[in-house]
Amino acid sequence: MIVTKEKPLEEILGFLMPHKRILIVGCDGCTQPPRGVREAKTYAMLVEMGGKLKNREIQCRTTTVAKQCDNNLCATTLTSQVKDIEAILSLACGVGVQTLSEVFPDIPVYPGQNTIFIGSQERESGTLYEKCKACGDCLLAETGGVCPITRCAKQLLNGPCGGQAKGKCEVGGWKNDCAWILIYNRLKDKGRLSEFTKFREQRDFRISQSPREINETEEKTEETP
Amino acid sequence: MKKPIYSNLMKEITEGKFVFTGELEPVKTTNLHEVLEGAKILKGHVVAANITDNPTAFAYMNALIPSYMIQKEAGLEAIYQMTTRDRNRIALTSDLLAAGALGIKNVLSLTGDHTTIGDNPQAKPVFDLDSASLVHLIRKMVDETIDLNNNKIEDPPKFHVGIAANPNADPLEPEILKIERKTKMGAEFVQTQCVYDIERAKRFMETMSNSNIPVLIGIAPFKSIAMMKWMVKFVPGIYVPDEMQQRLLEAKKRGGKEAIIEENIEIFSDLIKEIRKTTNAAGIHMMAVGFEWIVPKILEHSRKS
Amino acid sequence: MNVLKNQGVKNFILLRLPCVGRVSPTFFLKALALGITRLVVIPCEEDYCRFKEGSRISTRRFLAIQNLLHQLGFGKDVFTIIRKLRKVHIDTNRCIGCGDCAYICPYDAIKIVTPGVAQINLNVCSGCGACAPVCPSIAIIPEGFEYESMSRSISNYNSFIRKMKSERKTPMVLVFCCQWSEFSALDKNQGDLSKDNVVILEIPCSSRVDSLHILEAFYSGFDGVLIVTCKEGECKLEEGNEKAKERVLSLKKLLAQVNLENRLEICFTSPKYVGEFDTYISSFLEKIGSLSKNS
User: Fold this and answer.
1) From A218, B54, B225, B271, which residue has the greatest number of CB atoms within 10 Å?
2) How high does pLDDT run on average in chain B?
3) Does the beta carbon of A35 lie under 8 angstroms from any beta carbon of chain C?
4) How far apart are the C-alpha atoms of B47 and A159, rounded to whole Å?
5) What is the pLDDT of residue C190?
6) Are A23 and A85 in contact (CB under 8 A)?
7) Higher pLDDT, C279 or A80
8) Rounded mean pLDDT of B226-245?
9) Distance from CA of A97 to the nearest CA of C (A)
10) Does A38 touch chain C (CB under 8 A)?
11) CATH code for the domain of A50
12) What ipTM goes with this model?
């Protein structure tokens, strides 16, 4: 899922100051931690109380969308709710914010979150870990299921580097695991060290050249002669 | 097929001589004086000297210029260090061409310390290539006269390419496998991180016995007790035997700075002797940045029996 | 209270107890002697007693009383026992299948089933409500402690608070009280506890404490919120007090952004320590009072 972190209220109030009637839109999609209606209600109260501290009367209404990255869902869910709204505060990832801006070009849409990474949550510790960089050229088959593009600070294809000791990485203060030692251990356990020793050629960064787009209909037409 | 030899370093290694290399560090200055003075001191005692490329991600003078200058002004062959941290494959290719034009003969391929541990930790790290693919690039330029994307190079450069290794690495096996990987890609020599314990050097050389890449064991004398303590405390994996630490501490008590120097000369010339006697290392890489004058003393002492 | 309605009871006096085992048989007889016409006891289901078999032991006692009353010539329904446990329901229309409730449930009563909605096993649910405050879509309905009804009762104080403040200028405090940790009402004469600037809301377990309700309390004008929960290791359910503590800590970070972090506190108490709760309340009131003066 896409992991986001709340922007400081101070920053949000900064965007919202010129406006009076705000719609706070949660997202029930993949945002993690979930930014649904509960989060929207929380923000509504914080924004109104924070506005009061600055002698601003801000009125917030709250709603949520099944997934804000779907322009059709956004339009059908929200069109009736934005009539007297001066601005939207989106609690989705950057994708949701942009989708809303496109669906409602006349209403300013502000981000309530900073979008951090694609990751997973370890329930026991509640920690969210970055797991995928959407590099467009998945290596996981030969790296024992550990992604060096995401989990190695240098994104090395032929690691580990000299910055590891006892399997920990110097970047970030010896807290994080060295991805390449993880890979080495995994492959060693499976008797596949030849895959570790193998030289991996430099990546083709054209694959991940932004902006990227996929149009399945076009692809299908291209395939049919 | 016998590979052509371009540099004195490679010539001596191939001839089976026990070689010594040194190390010089250009810093945050436009003044080349210190590097050139260092080079003049090392000249005649080492066959070549590394010029560091912004070590620990500190933004210092570009290594290529001093590499060229020590060859020109001091007559000391350079081992031009290149990290992949700050330049993408275009800049690396470009700098390699420039190095070729300036008569550089040896390149040490390094991944480079991460930007976040440097003096501009906010910088965007590049790492377009890593040390293995930089070896690959250099081999393609030298052997096939093409760049990574197979574009033709007119008047290709003539380099020997070396790599770094860490005998202190824990776990050690991936480190060895990594050397194997880079050797397969065409690396021609290894310079190691500093070793203080002869047993480590032996163990490392034994694990390396299957590969036939020449290894220069890194030796870094202690400029001061403070430096020793810092190394022990902060450099991961570094092991300085208690006895060695004790000898230096006692030397300081006995006779201050000068006694430390004397003790250094004793300790490290002995270590070099041991390495020559008990391992099949091809040489020693002397890292005494900022006190290069100790290198001739240690080397001379190590020749005495 | 639907339970009583179903029994056809219209007017009643409600007496809440930590455990039905606490009541002596003479109490019932005295009540009848006072002119009360009907007694309804609502104990937990036997397997769910939070104490030591309180439900089972007192059931035996109740049956004896019932028998006695019958022999004394009272009608059959003068003394009724209704086993009841408030449980949790899930509004699957709102559920987004995130799994947060399934993870937090200490009884493993919730599963996420295809097509990605939570399903609760009511045979296992003990009604602690720990799942409700973690639900991002407020899809969990703890019987008797529903989000909306609690929310309504908090915001209903709005005008009362305004009145109190304009008349008396004393700070208003809302207390979320775990039903197992605080029973001082039992030890005191009626009315003594309720200082009128302290509002007490009972919750089934402090793990039901919902940060939205706390925010709503501040939003409605309360000057301070106190969470009362059991002492460490004494949660009658499953580490509900720990969960509440974590929730309070993370909510304080949010509250700091509107300068309210010092107005929320959690205290750990137990019915064992008579008077402790009052001490907490007094010192909290004092603290909130001085904060209000400064701001």
Assistant:
1) B54
2) 96
3) yes
4) 30
5) 44
6) yes
7) A80
8) 91
9) 19
10) yes
11) 3.40.50.2300
12) 0.90
Interface touch C260/A8, C-beta < 8 Å: no
Neighbours of B181 (CB within 10 A): 21
CATH topology for the B8-303 domain: TIM Barrel (3.20.20)
CB atoms within 10 A of CB C195: 13
pLDDT, tens digit, 9 for 90 and up, residues B53-80:
999 999 999 999 999 999 999 999 999 9
Does the pLDDT of residue A170 top 90, yes or no?
yes
Q: Which residue has the higher pLDDT, C282 or A179?
A: A179
- CB–CB contact A161 B111 (8 Å): yes
- With bands split at pLDDT 50, 70 and 90, how would you rate the model's confidence at C168? confident
Whether residues B111 and A166 touch (CB distance < 8 A) is answered with no
Phi, psi of B127, rounded to the nearest 5 degrees: 45, 45
- A96 — contact with chain B (CB < 8 Å)? no
Residue where the block lists tokens 């070099």: B272
- The parent domain of residue A69 ranges over 2-116
For chain A, the average pLDDT equals 94
Instruction: Take residue A42 and report the two structure tokens written for it.
Output: 């929380």
Q: What are C231-265's pLDDT values in tens digits?
A: 887 777 777 888 889 999 999 999 999 999 999 99
- Write out C97-151 in H/E/C secondary structure: CCCHHHHHCCCCCEEEECCCEEEECCCCCCCCCCCHHHCCCCCEEECCCCHHHHH
If asked whether residues A7 and A62 sit together in one domain, one would say yes
Sign of CA dihedral B141, B144, B146, B147: negative
Burial class (CB within 10 angstroms; exposed 0-12, middle 13-18, buried 19+) of B153: middle
Contact between B215 and B285 under an 8 Å Cβ cutoff? The reply is no
Q: Is residue C189 over pLDDT 50?
A: no
The answer to whether the peptide bond before residue C106 is cis (omega within 30 degrees of 0) is no
CA atoms within 13 A on the CB side of B195: 28
Residue-range domain boundaries for chain C: 2-81, 88-142, 147-294
State pTM to two decimals.
0.86
Alpha carbons B193 and B203: distance in angstroms, whole number: 14
DSSP E strands in C181-269: the ranges are 198-203, 224-230, 264-269
| Whether the predicted pLDDT of B304 surpasses 90 | no
Give the CA distances from residue C34 to residues A45, B57, B178, B297, C71, in Å, rounded to whole numbers and listed in that order. 49, 87, 90, 109, 19
Same domain for A11 and A92, yes or no, is: yes
Task: Give residue for tokens 């899930």.
Answer: C90
Residues listed for chain C: 295
Q: Does domain C147-294 have CATH number 3.30.70?
A: no
| DSSP letter, residue B72 | I
Q: Which residues, other chains included, contact B158 with Cβ-Cβ below 8 Å and sequence gap of 6+?
A: B4, B6, B100, B105, B142
CB B275 within 8 A of CB B286: no
Q: What does the pLDDT read at residue C1?
A: 56
Give the angle B2-B4-B5 at the CA atoms, nearest 5°: 120
